[in-house]
Amino acid sequence: MAEQLTGLINSTESFGAVDGPGVRFIVFMQGCSMRCRYCHNPETWNTYTGTRRTPQDVLQQALRYKSYWKNHGGITVSGGEALLQLDFVTELFRLSKEQGIHTALDTSGNPFTRNQPFWEKFQKLCEFTDLFILDIKEMDEEKHKKLTGQRNVNILELASTLSDFGKPMWIRHVLVPGLTDDEEGLHRMAHFIKTLKTVERTEILPYHTLGVPKWEQLGIPYTLKNMQSPTAEQIRRAEIILGIDH
Ligand code: SF4
């Protein structure tokens, strides 16, 4: 008998309000290869914890909240890194689209490649994904490596690919004063975003320290201990550079 398709899930949230339009059921996948210094979900990094669930089971749970979604809400898959479990996400979104549910994928883009089998699977995922929410953490490759432990060339290529495919996108940038808010980097990001044809929204995510106790519990040294959250002025300055209107 063929093995049943499952995904490794960290947790779910019934009434998400920020990861996509409207009220959303959020699925947090387990596993991420990045090591962002400000990550507020380090418990999602490993692939030896989490719960194995089928797409059907997750969809059944999500459907309990359907009446709250109205015209705009739906299902968002986030992480950890959702693109590490392409088969699961694609099947969950395929089943969701059969029921007319809006689907959004929140990703750091790190697994993206045009190599097979990823590329073919990714194109299939795109068929069933209404919105991509993509984090751009740094434009400069070296700074990106220092911040996340990984390169960013393929992440920027993912953004360009989604633009070429005509896929709606939200771009997000975590703003850490003194680390990810330098003027040159923000201008480079603004310039890059202008090259993309399908960006519906650009958002600043202000750095916060709510995840720090999790690092301590996991015994992982937290290297941004003295960093502050950005002030309203610092956020506004970055928004102006990135062309964000309110
Ligand atoms: S990509 Fe997301 S989950 Fe992974 S380390 Fe970075 S912030 Fe954490």
UniProtKB/TrEMBL annotation:
Keywords linked to the UniProt accession: 4Fe-4S, Cytoplasm, Iron, Iron-sulfur, Lyase, Metal-binding, Oxidoreductase, Pyruvate, S-adenosyl-L-methionine
Gene Ontology CC entries for this record: cytoplasm
Catalytic activity: glycyl-[formate C-acetyltransferase] + reduced [flavodoxin] + S-adenosyl-L-methionine = glycin-2-yl radical-[formate C-acetyltransferase] + semiquinone [flavodoxin] + 5'-deoxyadenosine + L-methionine + H(+)
Residue ranges occupied by any Radical SAM core domain in the UniProt entry: 18-245
Subcellular location: Cytoplasm
PROSITE patterns with a match to the protein in the record: RADICAL_ACTIVATING, RADICAL_SAM
Cofactor(s) needed: [4Fe-4S] cluster
GO MF term set: 4 iron, 4 sulfur cluster binding; [formate-C-acetyltransferase]-activating enzyme activity; lyase activity; metal ion binding
Family: Belongs to the organic radical-activating enzymes family.
Protein name: Pyruvate formate-lyase-activating enzyme
